[in-house]
Each structure stands twice: as structure tokens, then as C-alpha cells.
Amino acid sequence: MYHKEKSIQIKNSASALYNNLSVLRIAPRSLTYFTVVHANVVNMVSASWDGLNYSHRQLQSKEPNVATSTSLIMQKGIQMYESDGSIMVYWHALDTSETPTAQAMFARGIAAVREKYICVGMSSGTILVFDIPIKGSNITLSEILEEHKESITDMASECSGSLDCIADLVSADDGGNLCVWKSGEEFEQLNKIPGFDMSCTSVKLWKGTVVAGYGTGQIRLYEAVTGILHAEINAHARWIYSLDIAPVSGLLLSAAEDSLVRVWHLTVTPETNSVEVAHMYNECVTDTQICGAKFCDGDGYAFAVTGYDLSEIIRYTQT
Question: Three-state SS across the chain?
């Protein structure tokens, strides 16, 4: 179903972090941006769709960080950049005054919601909600959500683009708990799905369905609003490090410490309130501890993979 393409070289290797790969596709410019974190350096690569041109950029901070294609989150603050990393448009300092000296304060997990908000998860379990203006850089901290009691591990917004979905944000923590939110001037918590004392390392939200990956190697699918468990899949033998969904086709990508990348197909049937899962493909990335895996487009035609201490982004495309 997929075959390996020429890899993209990066200037530093990938750190062993969950979800350590971000992909941003910019259709008007026929470019795809790839972002990988190494210690305190963010490696950005822009690749033309014809595969002929590559451009590299590095963003550096004084402490370890996690990045998406538009934001850099660190132990001392949150930086937001233009999508190409050229200009920093906002800086938010983290308040570490109340943090015990033996406990690190850090941000982890980020999601853009309804093209109006950016939500950032914290090690304290809080979620910072930033209001993003349509024009200009007058970004403001509008709300702090305090439902989680353990460190945030990942967050995701509704990726199907459907306005009919009530829930538009899901957050996960180190205890495996999931919180489902509806955005607005004040965010409303719709549901809290209890965990099983096992970290939820990666989470996605698609067509009102929460897809969560755990340290057990399992993937669970829940109805977002009610918390009904649709399916439980013993997908991997080791910790899941990354999930992604191609919103147009409904393909689900999972990657784990067992060096396997698997592709699944999700079918949501609203009339019967059911979700079907079919296994489509798997790839063993030999001798690689996978850190991140993302589809490169909405159809799932191609995906990319990063590995710990690997100075390249491995790409696969459909045959």
C-alpha cells in the first residue's frame, strides 16, 4: 500500500519525545513544513511538493522544548511564530513562582481550535487558552482550564472540519484521563473520560470520535460527548508515541516503541452510532525507536516518520 521514498535530512537528530514531528501543508505555496525537536533546537524543513527544493531553519532556546509548525513551548515560556519560523509574533512567560524547586514546570501538548484559539497544556494539568485575532498579533491569554490533576500529555482539536460536531477539543494527561471541551468565549467541559493509571501519550478527535493511544500499546475509540467506548485495539507491543488522522479519508496512523507504524481505516456511521476499524497496512522501521509519525496530506496519500537519534525524516507514499 505504501513504499519508501527518499528521506529528508535534518541538521540534528530527533529527541525521544512523544509526537516529535509536526507537518504543515501550505497549498498556495506548494510547500510542506516539517518540524522536529532536538534538545533545545527546533529543526524546520520546508519541502516543495516536487521534491526538488528544501530549505532549513533552526530555532534555538535556552532550555528543552516542544514545537509545532507555528509555536514553540519551553520551560520558561511560550513563543508563537509565523508558520515558516521567520518572525516571533508572541511571547508568554510561564509563572514558576509557585512551582516546588524539585518539580519542573513545562508546557506539553498544543492545539489550534476553530481558527480562533490556541490551547497549550501544562505540567501542572492546567490548559492555557490564547485568543488569536483574525488580523494582527494582539494575542491574549483568555482563559485557564483547570480540570486535569496530572500533567498534560497531548491535545487535539476536531480535524474533520465539520461544524456539526459539538466537541472541538480533547485533552489527555499522564493518568490516561481525557477531557472533552466545547470552545467559546468560555470553554465548556462536555465530558471527562477516566483513565486506567496508564499515560495517554497521543490523542486525536475526528467526527465526534476521540482516538487515544496509551502506554500499554492500546488504542481506544470513544464517542466524545457521551464517553461510550466504541472499540479497543491491541495495536502495538510497546508504548504508543504518535497518532494521526487523515481527515478526508479517515485513515488512522499509529506508531510505537516497537518500531512499527500501522495504518487503520475508520468508518463512522452516525445512524447506528458506531465506528468500524479495519487494519490496512503496517511497516517495520528497522532498528528505530519511533518518536513521531504524521500524514503529509488530508487523504493519507503519504506519511512521515522520525526516530530517536535519527537525523532524517523517513517518508512513505502510496503505490
Answer: CEEECCCEECCCCECCCCCCCEEEEEHHHCEEEEEEEECCEEEEEEEECCCCCEEEEEEECCCCEEECCCEEEECCEEEEECCCCCCEEEEEECCCCCCCCCCCCCEEEEEEECCCEEEEEECCCCEEEEECCCCCCCCEEEEEECCCCCCEEEEEEECCCCCCCCCCEEEEECCCCEEEEECCCCCEEEEEECCCCCCEEEEEEECCEEEEEECCCEEEEEECCCCCEEEEEECCCCCEEEEEEECCCCEEEEEECCCEEEEEEEEEECCCCEEEEEEEEEEECCCCCEEEEEECCCCCCEEEEEEECCCEEEEEEEC
Nearest to 191 by CA among 201, 177, 204: 177
Angle of CA points 170, 186, 172, to nearest 5°? 20
**Residue linked to cell 517518508:** 315
Q: What is the pLDDT along the chain (319 residues), one digit of tens a residue?
A: 899 999 999 999 999 999 999 999 988 888 999 999 998 888 999 999 887 788 998 887 644 445 454 555 555 678 888 877 778 888 888 876 655 555 667 888 999 998 899 999 999 999 999 999 988 788 999 999 999 999 999 999 998 877 778 999 999 999 999 999 999 999 999 999 999 889 999 999 999 999 999 999 999 999 999 999 999 999 999 999 999 999 999 999 999 999 999 999 999 887 888 899 999 999 999 999 999 999 999 999 999 999 999 999 999 999 8
Q: Global pTM?
A: 0.92
What is the chain's alpha carbon radius of gyration, rounded to the nearest angstrom?
18
How many Å apart are CA 291 and CA 17, to the nearest integer? 6
